[in-house]
Sequence to fold (670 residues):
Amino acid sequence: MADFDLGAAFIPALHKPAELLPIAKHREALLYLVETSPVTIVVGQTGSGKSTQIPQFLERAGWCADGKIIGITQPRRVAATTVALRVAEEFGCEVGKEVGYSIRFEDVTSGSTRIKFLTDGLLIREALVDPLLSRYSVIMVDEAHERSISSDILLGLLKKIRKKRPDLRIIISSATLQAEDFRNFFSEPKEQKEGPDGKQNDDIASIISLEGRTYPIDILYLETPTENYLEKAISTVFEIHTNEPKGDILVFLTGREEIDQAVQAVAERSAQLRAGSQSILPLPLYAGLPADQQMYVFEEAPENFRKVIFSTNVSEASVTIDGIVYVVDSGFVKLRAYNPRTGIESLTVTPVSKASAAQRAGRAGRTKPGKCFRLYTEETYQSLPDSTVPEIQRSNLAPFILQLKALGIDNVLRFDFLTPPPAELMIRALELLYSLGALDDYAKLTRPLGLRMAELAVEPMMAKTLLSAPSFGCLSEILTIAAMTSLGGNIWIQHEGEKKKTESARWKFAAEEGDHLTLLNVYQAFVTKGRKESRFCHENLLNFKLMERAVSIRAQLKRYLERFGINVDESLAPHSTSAPASNKAEQIRRCLTAGYFAHAARMQPDGTFRNVSGTTVLHAHPSSIMFNRKADWVIFHEVVETGNKTFIRDISRIEKAWLLEYAPEFYKSS
DNA sequence: GAGCACTGC
Fold:
């Protein structure tokens, strides 16, 4: 008998030893399937070890002979890096050697790399250079069930590539509900091998299921529907707090406003709880939250506190919080929708799908048995769609159509999509690309313009603006504006109750001509006066991480242009507001019009904007310098509809005549 | 006079 000292403090292992993971006992079966069938669909929950173990099994089984490599795609950058780090550690190598990763701005691979993790978008880009992805012996598409546009397109490409490269092995990792969809996709059209009983040909794609989770989760429904899920969520939190044993709570809501409201309400009500009992620590979590405030969510709650996290969908897949025992699911999510007729994107509160509800519930039982409180009835649950409408069916497809064309897929309408997007969406995208000059009368990619637009890592209208910039003599400035507008986030840090401060910080950089010139001023100040330091950002309430990112994006775009043989002259004096520069400002606005003519609007006497056809009322977004300012004609970067208002963001003044000058075809009838 | 789900090249 071993002489255990039960009083000793045990330190839990940082990682579960690989041989204890459920996947270990499926190793032989898995390798057999990959050997014998071109496509293997692996069904397994988070924590089954599929992302970390499968690549190592394959490497040991000889799939990297002849210098070929194993590629594993992830939908997110963080996943690609963290999984690579972990596999490198298990493999016993430095990351970047036998095991590496590649994401935008960071290529941590070398000649000796055999197992490579990368984002799905980046693998599509690799196909531009190497159409058959010939370096890879196996490609594993991880988290395919999330159905991101990139992974959907990647699957379509892989299906095509497979026909020319029978040696290529494809592995798709998926959640249970959708495994059959993937198999059907790759098995179509049923080839001659179809059996006499009409049974589908299983030779192409096989499914293997890995053991699921270890801890059970109780699902509880409401007996009668609620009219106010926010209020119900708050009261449920208190019910759990008083009736259920220890364990943190995760509440799924739809957005920032709701979350802030809930956090405040819980803080107020818990203050009224009698002293002595355990207290509640309510915390918000959404992607827009500054990084330092997000950190609290991962820290252990102080003694005698129960952590309650009110979160958006970030916690459904992207972020994992330890110690969650209870999940409260509002049953709703904000989803992007795209109206092909107006070209307007909207964010709409939508009921979740069954798959999404399962994913949310699963967040409860990661470390011990858990409970999930669904704020809807079981009947409502039954009426929910099985899965969320894939992103590809509700997005602006122009950037992806451009990529497909550059990959040599001319007939995009007949591309083999996992689920085809509505024809209207495709037509709208083709029309836009045609008006920008990326496609010719036969819908063929133009050269060099269209091809270059496809290669630039910015959306088509900005790509056109960039490629037009040399003729306006403002390439250096447009490069900066392109980098700043493609950040996808607010560069201004908004502290609670300090709106005034943010506003005055912003006005220091304000340009009369609009937001694009203001962004240019901010960047110029950051790299010159601010010496790219965080102190400058701190003093001016700017998001340092985003500013650093802008520097990277700008450098990357500049490299692309130089590869096209376009010289970027940075020797000119930095932008200033002095007299000779005003001509430069006009050139910049003219150049922006050459790319953004489709996003033009005119201010009405009541201060709102109307698009050119006059059909849509648009409001300047409160984050814009043009908010509550007088203007006539403007162009804008993007339009977003929320609730019942349609906002335009990143706005600059232009002259009406410029629209006719740079887009005569587009505006000839008006 | 008032506001933004989440990714990615």
About this structure: The two ends of chain A are 91 Å apart (CA to CA). DSSP finds 24 helices and 21 strands in chain A. Residues 1-14, 190-200 of chain A have pLDDT under 50 and may be disordered.
